[in-house]
Amino acid sequence: MSLYKSLTRLVAIFAGICGISYAQDHQLEQYVQQGLDSNLVLIQKDLSMKKAMNGLEVARSMFLPNITFDLTYSHAEGGRSIDLPIGDMLNPVYTTLNQLTQSNNFPQIDNEQITFLPKNYYDAKVRTSVPIVNTDIKHNKVVREKMVELSKTETETYKRELVKDIKIAYFNYLSAVQAKEIYLNALNLAKEGRRVNQKLLEAGKGLPAYVIRSDAEIAQQESKIAEAEQQIKNAKYYFNSLLNRSADAEIHYAQAINNGKELKTPELSVNIDGREELRSLEGNIAIQESLVEMSKQAFVPKVSAFLDLGSQAEGLRVSRQSQYFMVGAQLSFPIFQGNRNRLKIQENQIAVAEAQNKLDQAKQQLELSAEVAKNELIAMQKNYESSKIQMEAASTYQRLILRGFNEGVNTYIETIDARSQYTNSQMANNIAAFKLLSAIAKLERENASYQLK
């Protein structure tokens, strides 16, 4: 069976890339989705995105009032003091009053010494503060929003790269499987040739050299089968690592049924507008521009207000007299900073120019990469068509030589050569077919045309 007749469900015409269309293997799509759900690197990027979103929520919360509880307790002895001669001032008066009233209702009092530091003093309050004018908070929120977008685009970028890697790894695995089948078919033909030559030798019509040559051909095919099995194992390990599965997990694929369709690539085009890398660089420009605006607004006054509700007294007493409230507002703006802000503005403006230059470079590089992928796809299509023609010619040649050998016209060496040509053409067609599929996946990646769910 020719490789072309065994490839259809994997290789119809790819849908969705610049006019290319092929029927996607449903099993492959399931593996792609599994990789997007379980890949370890992607899980880490999802965690980074959640971290960025938490940072955005923190930035948004800066607009809300801030309520805190403060409690201060202090006790002091000594320190500065002031003498108050209240006894010297009032005792003569109290003595006169006692004499006039003929009583002791007005006792003598001592002079007082009042210290500045309070004894056994507390101040407990609940402070509510709210920003009224603060441009830094606004710009910080904008920067955090852009950082969330950057994290999302970074995740999407890796997803697209992962989709491409999964598809190419899947095609490489199938190519190795198909190669083993080709070598197995060649081995069966070689064994059949040895059986025929052995019968002819026993009948006195064959040559021992043909039997020896058959044994050599069998050994050669067995060696190629062993090599193909190793390639299958390596391809399986890599594919399963992309899906975060056990290295020995089986890879399922649907057997293809010939539907007579050709692998064709209609008119191609390149469109990199959907590349997440460009969106990421544009977001970086927006962040730098926001930092420029923040620096320019450094001299805009910052205004905030506060309300205190609390109690303060000595001796840990709480009463109506100890309770209080206080409202206030605070305004601040810089007057002179040694031109640091002007230099900061210039630095941020340079960062904007650098980010814009990176965007221009990225556009140029991505367009070049997409053009290369398109040209590679065209070359792989031509290579596949050529290999298919060569395989069909080799198949016809093998049948003619085998018929001639059975009729005694051609030698056994010619049948070996014809069989070798057919096997090589099958392998060339197998490689060309899966290289074409890989080229389609690469162009799909370059155009960012795969629909991420």
From TrEMBL:
GO terms for molecular function: efflux transmembrane transporter activity; porin activity. Pfam families: OEP (PF02321). The keyword Ribonucleoprotein does not apply. It comes from the Bacteria. SUPFAM superfamilies: Outer membrane efflux proteins (OEP). The keyword Acetylation does not apply. Residues 1-23 form the signal peptide. Keywords: Cell outer membrane, Coiled coil, Lipoprotein, Membrane, Signal, Transmembrane, Transmembrane beta strand, Transport. It is found in: Cell outer membrane. Residues 211-238, 345-390 form a coiled coil. Its main location: membrane. One of its GO terms (cellular component) is cell outer membrane. Gene3D superfamilies: Outer membrane efflux proteins (OEP) (1.20.1600.10). PANTHER family: OUTER MEMBRANE PROTEIN TOLC. Belongs to the outer membrane factor (OMF) (TC 1.B.17) family. This is Efflux transporter, outer membrane factor (OMF) lipoprotein, NodT family. It comes from Sphingobacterium mizutaii. The lineage of its organism: Bacteria, Pseudomonadati, Bacteroidota, Sphingobacteriia, Sphingobacteriales.
